[in-house]
Model the fold of this input.
Amino acid sequence: MREDASCNFWTSMLPERPSSRPRLAEDVQADVVIVGAGFTGLWTAYYLKRLAPEREIVVLEAERVGHGASGRNGGWVIGNLAGLERHIGSLPREERRGCCALVADNVDEIGRVLAREQIDADYNKDGAIYAAARYRDQIAIQRGYLRQLHELGHSEADCMWLDARQLEERVRFRDGYGGIYHRQVATVNPGRLVTGLAEVVERLGVTIHEHSRATALGRHEVRTRDGSVEAATIVCATEGYADRFHDFKRHVIPVQSLVIATEPLSQATWEAVGMSERLAFSDASRLINYGHRTADGRIVFGARGNYRFGARPKDDQAISDDAIRMRRDLLVDLLPALEGVRIDYGWGGSLGLSRNFRPHAIFDRASGLATAGGYAGEGVAASHLFGRTLADLILGRDTELVHMPWAFIDASHRQLIKRWEGEPLRWLAAQAITYSYAGEEALMRRDRPAPLIKPAMKRVNDYFASIIE
Ligand SMILES: Cc1cc2nc3c(=O)[nH]c(=O)nc-3n(C[C@H](O)[C@H](O)[C@H](O)COP(=O)(O)OP(=O)(O)OC[C@H]3O[C@@H](n4cnc5c(N)ncnc54)[C@H](O)[C@@H]3O)c2cc1C
Done:
């Protein structure tokens, strides 16, 4: 491990950062004020300004642009939504297909917008090994999952099965028994994406204030320590970083997610790993292990999120050496050719988990309050789709997006999203689920028949998954 490895790889790749944008230091008026300069806030600003250039838009960011999850994530741009089944499971088949096609096309649309706006964020679409089976028991489970994806409405061309040989042609996992290949997955450098997008929206005429933490959301007014913005519409785009200034946190809580990046790999190591394309990959662990090959030939790898008692968001990026080592060991277990490879970076952040376990885009015309989030760790692509949706909702456009089951008009987040239970219930539930998932995996790893305990644990964990995934 490199000394001082505890820092964010994406930030280190940015060219010298210009000095901060000015903080809000007076009382101003605008048409729309957006709280949070991550992907959700900035994509909303982008689409609002493109569709209605005359609108005055102000973005308030507590720290710097991309301070939250948008500047720290694993870079997967997924043609899916966490909790999609909950949104569309009961719709007729043709409608479900339409929703899945829209979510899949969102990945291509992001690529088109980045090209049009000349945002160089290393966008690359080589698809993903979506959930590789690494234990024999997982083969049937993953084949069943693929059937569910098709049943839900994902096309067979987008999601397909790779047998062990086909999998090995793409990437050499230890014990790769086969897995799902998802064509509609791209990867990006999220640091470049969020900073590039901020520059684009500024060129379009949006004002961004950094170090301008919203301290109160009033009726058509957002206050900061040194100024305020009066606006007909307020967009709360704080996801896993919702602050004490409002009650969003009772509906969307932060969950920690931790990521590492290797040194650039040699040609010989790449030959041993496979991945001649810049593929994204994940295995079938319910505890989540995922990564991708970066533009400069490293592997960025995330694994094992966790929930902090009291739902505290992770503001600092640093993670402990132990946390880095644990993820390195998981990575080497998955890709044995990486034995001895140095880990150069390790960092963490918070993603937002809604109590409904599905993402939302909401605009309440009566109060003028809009919000989107609850992406549950799949927000890089979703924030683009949901920012676009918020823009259409706010502008009263009758588009396909505003009729999607995750788009809501004339209701508030309080009506639509349940409130999280108090502590210690949340923390205890998170611990129980984590240990139960880990226990099931340990049993599978032993690869011995356990005709009673294995099905029982699977049933329990399927139940947990049906609640939270
Ligand atoms: C380590 C990690 C890995 C991840 N990997 C992936 C991945 O590979 N693929 C994927 O799809 N998703 C991933 N995610 C999730 C994804 O990054 C997020 O869902 C997405 O970036 C959310 O964007 P956002 O703009 O809604 O929120 P954020 O990017 O979190 O932005 C919220 C912003 O609001 C600001 N803010 C908060 N309170 C205030 C206030 N009072 N006043 C002003 N500003 C405020 C914060 O400073 C922050 O900048 C990951 C998340 C993490 C943490």
Observations:
- The chain has a mean pLDDT of 94.
- Residues 93-116 form the longest helix (24 residues).
- The chain has 13 helices and 19 strands.
- The two ends are 33 Å apart (CA to CA).
